[in-house]
Predict the 3D structure of the following.
Amino acid sequence: MVRTIAAKDLTTMFRDGRLPWAGGVVLALVVTAVTVGWQRQREIASERAAAQALDYDDWVAQPERHPHNAAHQGMHVFKPDPPLAIVDPGIDPYVGSTIWLRAHRQSELMFMPAQDATGLQRFGELSAAWVLQVLGPLLIIVLGFDAFAAERELGTLRQTLSLGISSKQILWGKALGQFWGLGLLLGPAAAGAAIVVVAGRGEAIDVDAAARLGWLGLGYAIYLAIAVFAVLTVSALGRSSRVALVTLLGLWIGTTLLAPRVASDLSRTWKPSPSRLTFNADLGAEMGRMQEQAWMANFGVATQWSPDLPLDKWGVALQVDDHAGYSVMDRHFARLWDTFGEQQRVQEWLGLAAPVLAVRAFSMAISGTDFAHYRTFSLAAERHRRVLQDLMSEDLVERADPRGTGHFDYRAGADLWRRMPPFTYAPPPVSWALRNSGRSLAVLIAGLLLSMAAAHVAVGARRTV
């Protein structure tokens, strides 16, 4: 009986044109977004790989110079674009992809694409994830707003119940019909995305990307299921189809369009983060204190680069200066990033009221485009920067310090530059991403259970109407 009801509803959605027309628009947007994402990723991957190779070649080919000057020139490293960025680019357009590794200071990602975008960027970037998160619930509203209300208006709901069919069977039949309709629309698109993501780079099958795609599909299936049961709940409670439609559109605007901005503001209020000016001032002040202590302990001078420091100690002084700042930078950046993580957790919990917040966090985490993945790349870049800094300082200690007053006349060449290895970065595996996204997945599952319970209560309350 459940399958019969589902088949009847699916046929109705085809006959009145809602499924082919509304669903076709959403499907076209998903296909377009995946195609654009694939083309974008091909360009980005080739550009970043070429830029990384050219930057290292420039490092090796630089002329003879003092190693500390070379450390100030530094090098650039580029964050590789994860395979599932085709589906969900996440925060990458807003944080950039390039880090300048230079002497003395830890750098942040630079060259954010959003800086060159128009004001439309604030509404989000067209991607398959955006279409599913924002337009997916709207499609379900169009397909199911009158699932119960229309039958109540026509009197067929009372007739169906009089045949001995339970309200729960009707609920699950209508839900199954919605799932079938969504499957017909999104199934082929999901299969095409899987082919593009898993084998679209012309390489061997990416097992990690395949696993990520499977988990991503599960997350969006739960999210859309929440929307299905929420729509059926309102349709069962609404006095008419018109009332149900207006109510659902209001809920969609509030929970899908307004909720992300409200949640962002609330998270910053509850877990405030320092401004860039405050962060830099606090970091600089503590670094200054730690470095003064290190200079006093090692050289007996309280002022950095004091004229009392012999020139045959400048290489050692650079080592001491940098190592004194490493722990300070680690502490300040960790505190800042932990604050961002707390803000993210607040938004995930708010996903109980607005599931789009939970699915957005889960989608970015599994796709490898969330803040946690940004943090791992930044840490890897910082480790590489310290290798560069320490290598230059060690060479100064070995070759420039013995020259005394001729310290700054020393010039290193390609033999030293080649000792600095090229930067390589391996993103964490899907198991790591799952551990970091367990909260958002749990919130989605809780939301599904709540929406199912609400639908059962709503249908039971109106079973004789």
Q: What stands out?
A: DSSP finds 17 helices and two strands in the chain. Residues 114-121 have pLDDT under 50 and may be disordered.
